[in-house]
Amino acid sequence: TNADFEGGLREVVAGAKIVDQVSYEGLVPGKEYVLNAELRNKADESVIGKSNPDEPVKFTPESASGDVDVKIIVNDDVKAGSVKQGVAYEYLTSTAVDASGKDSESGDENKIAEHTDINDKAQTVDSHDELTPKISTKVDQLDEHEALKKD
């Protein structure tokens, strides 16, 4: 998997969006799966963001392996500068098949796979100090015989 900020933002802060590209293999083509994700603070593993639970990423793979993106939104209570690194965790479920790929007739949500490695660098997003625009100018002292003229 690979997680990165969406847009130009480079800080784990309230409302920031992270796009997590998840690679999968061994899925059953033609069966529906649901991918959910959360962002954890690397310092204490607390949950600081989640994919939208009202709009889970549902997909039906055409082949056993591939990639799918899930968007994670950082929680509203995460203040600027409070999180140095966030790590994406992913959870794959299905009501169509069980973890071994066999048809599931119960309709229950079956855990298929998860990726929850707090030390995975590819799943880590780092906060960077925002660039602060600056301008400067230098004026040399005019000699006593020169005057500023208005054009």
From TrEMBL:
Residues 98-151 are annotated as: Disordered. Residues 100-120, 140-151 have a biased composition (Basic and acidic residues). Residues 12-125 form the T-Q ester bond containing domain. It holds the Pfam family TQ. InterPro entries: TQ. This is T-Q ester bond containing domain-containing protein. It comes from Lentilactobacillus parakefiri.
